[in-house]
Amino acid sequence: MFAPFDLAAGWVQEHLLLPLLYQLGWMRWEDLAFGWALFAVYGAFQVAITFAVCMPLEHWRPVERWPDAKAVTVDVLYTVISRVGILPLLTFVAFYQIQVALNGYLTDHGWVPPTLELLFPSLIGQQMLTFVLYVMILDLSEYWRHRLSHMFGWWYALHSLHHAQRQMTFWSDDRNHLLDEVIGFLWFTAVALLIGIPPMQFPLLVLLLRFLESLSHANVRLSFGWLGERLLISPRFHRAHHGVRGAGRGSRNYGGVLPWWDRLFRTADFSPDYVPTGDPSAPEALATGGYLMQQRAGIGRMARALGKPARPDAKRSA
Amino acid sequence: MRLSLRPRLLLLLTLGAGLLGAGPAAAAGIAFAIDSAAASISVVDMARQMEIRRIPALREPHHLVLSPDGKDLIVGDTVGNQLLFLDPATGDIKRRLTVADPYQLGFSPDRKWLVVNGLARNQVDVYDAATYKLVKRFPLSSMPSHLVYSPDSAMVYVTLQGTDRLAAIDLNTLSVRWNQVVGKTPAGVLWNNGKLLVAAMGTDSLSVVEPADGRVLGRIVTGKGAHNLFHSPDKQIIYVNNRVAGTVVALDAATLKPLRTYAVPGGPDDMDFAPDGRIWITLRFAEKLAVLDPATGAIQTIDVGRSPHGIWLNPKAP
Predict the structure, then answer these.
(1) Does B39 contact A198 at a Cβ distance shorter than 8 Å?
(2) β-strand partners of B179
(3) Which chain A residue shows the shortest CA-CA distance from B82?
(4) What is the pLDDT of residue A108?
């Protein structure tokens, strides 16, 4: 099942990365390079499959039609950077280094980092069940990271780059400020170290989860029905989060893949409306600027938020 | 005969010859090939040359070794921080033991010690082989990779992939005797006729090292990315895997002169020798095992998991 992607990653490693590492005298990183090749190949496939499914859906039943979609172009760049290019490389290297340093420190002090399976030995050998549990834990942790990013003014100032998009499409999922990505990465790393996440053991399932996240941003009138809406997050459900009333503090529908946490913590909104998206309080540069302009605007907004005791836009949020 | 000219075409021809039955009859028994990326161990029927099942590990197994009494096949799971004890005849998991970052591991010839390299944690652990109790930990910078013992079990030599060094640990005094630069990115190491041979992966050669003090006495060119090396069962030939060149080179163990070069693309890594004379090699980036007939150069391949690494053959398994 994995063969074509793994073979492609193997080809990249053997014919591109290894000769390059050899020439540069960096052969010590060859194992790491292979890990990145796997990430990049799966990321490229992820982008392709998301495009193949979501693009026809957006043409079939769009929520909104725009005279032009220039603002979407930068989201494509975000997606490529996030899923294929430099970001997987940096996060892979950084995660590896942090994991090694922390695990080494802890082990030296007599505490071998746990895994979920070691905490619950009956899970050993039950790889699929274990993976489902990991997904649930991670999704719960992402719910709280996301919710907190709306609660703290300085953090939302960064996250508002994600919310500023008024032409939200499936490309918008990865539209994030780099600093927000770094915080998210550190958050994920902390959880990963606590429970020992095995993401690359199940690449196609990870791919499916990322696909669902992209789909939830799509500009499409699509709901999963009464029951489906309560099992998986649909484009309609997530659109309520991106609605103009969902910007800033007091938003709703924070979940990434599972709507369960929103129900549990009373932030779910299952109303059937397809609302306009965007953050009215955000500087225009965050909505329609180029990549670098958006990054600069995000930092500027964060600096201003840090200089104020409370954000004015927080009051406007529902 | 050197197969450097259009090696892939020749490999295909030899592969075809193998499929047509030109090679010797396959040996009976089972092979264990570790799949590092998917955290499993492939069990391969050697006679039928096909994978028959997968044993789940925990996170990231890499290497394996047979216990001195032959009753346990021990697999090191680095990220899972454990040793798996398998029945070498059936592959059944008998028990698990918590051990920090077991990457490469090996028992001393006198059966007294088990040395475990922690590549990610920059540590070399010396265990009592009878009790599996940690006797001493040596923090060694950096990336302790492969190891070999002196025939009298007095010393163990560990390659330090990240610092271009080879460390000699005196097992009688439990101290580091010397720690010397031996070549760029050293990986595999072998004791041969009173000298140490170190595969310097960042170069195209082996370093010949004096065991007494770590002096480099000379270099033997084998191919780009010299990664690992093994004695043939009769100790007459040394087979060297060259990771970047995609070749296996046979050297005369007495003279260290090249005898033959085999094209083995796909990232040749570990190997083991079947009673029928053929060499089983893991192809790290090709999801395959290669079965090389050194007499004819014919290669057959067997599909296994995503990142085959360590391999061990049990021709006596039922």
Answers:
(1) yes
(2) B167
(3) A112
(4) 66
Question: B207-252: per-residue pLDDT in tens?
Answer: 999 999 999 999 999 999 999 999 999 999 999 999 999 999 999 9
**Which residues have C-beta within 8 Å of that of residue A136, sequence separation ≥ 6?**
A258
* Residue from A216, A200, A188 nearest A43 by CA: A200
Contact between A14 and B265 using a beta-carbon 8 Å cutoff: yes
Its domain, for residue B117, covers 55-277
> Does pLDDT of B254 surpass 70?
yes
Round to whole Å and give the CA distance between B23 and B301.
13
Gap between the Cα atoms of B98 and B84, Å rounded: 9
Classify residue B317: in a domain, yes or no: no
Distance CA A214, CA A262 (A): 19
Count of pairs with CB atoms under 8 A, one residue in A, one in B: 100
Element (DSSP H or E) covering residue A48: helix A30-60
Cα A171 from Cα A50, distance rounded (Å): 9
Closest CA to B255 of B268, B238, B269: B238
Distance (Å, rounded) from C-alpha B181 to C-alpha B59? 32
Of A14, A27, A198, which has the smallest distance from its Cβ to B59's Cβ?
A198
| pLDDT for residue B21 | 36
pLDDT of A316 reads 37
Pairwise CB contact (< 8 Å): A14 & B202:
no
Residues 104-133 on A with a CB inside 8 Å of B are: 104, 107, 112-113, 115, 117-118, 124-125, 127
Query: Pick from A25, A103, A200: which is nearest to B37 by CB?
Result: A200
Nearest to B121 among A38, A107, A115 (CB): A107
Q: Kindly determine whether residue B59 and residue A115, on different chains, have CB atoms separated by under 8 Å.
A: yes
Q: Is residue B141 part of a domain?
A: yes
Rg (CA), chain B: 18
Between CA A167 and CA A181 the distance in angstroms is 21
Q: Residue B179's domain is classified under what CATH number?
A: 2.130.10.10
State chain B's mean pLDDT as an integer: 91
Q: Would you say the ipTM is above 0.85?
A: no
pLDDT value for A309: 58
pLDDT for res A312? 45
Structural domains in chain B (count): 1
Q: Does B285 touch chain A (CB under 8 A)?
A: yes
What backbone phi and psi angles, to 5 degrees, belong to A3?
-50, -50
Tell me, yes or no, whether B97 lies in a domain.
yes
Q: How confident is the model at residue A199 (pLDDT cuts 50, 70, 90)?
A: low
What is d(CA B25, CA B45) in angstroms, rounded to the nearest whole number? 13
What angle separates helix A86-108 from helix A70-83, to the nearest 10 degrees? 40
Residue A115: which of B58, B123, B287 has the nearest Cβ?
A: B58
Q: Is residue B162 one of the residues assigned to a domain?
A: yes
**B286: chain A residues, CB-CB within 8 Å:** 7, 10, 14
pLDDT confidence bin for A86, thresholds 50/70/90: low
Mutation for testing the A interface, residue in B141, B143, B184, B307 having most A CBs under 10 Å: B307
The pLDDT of residue A200? 63
The answer to whether residue A3 scores a pLDDT higher than 90 is no
Q: How big is the CA angle at B107 (ends B101 and B112), to the nearest 5 degrees?
A: 115
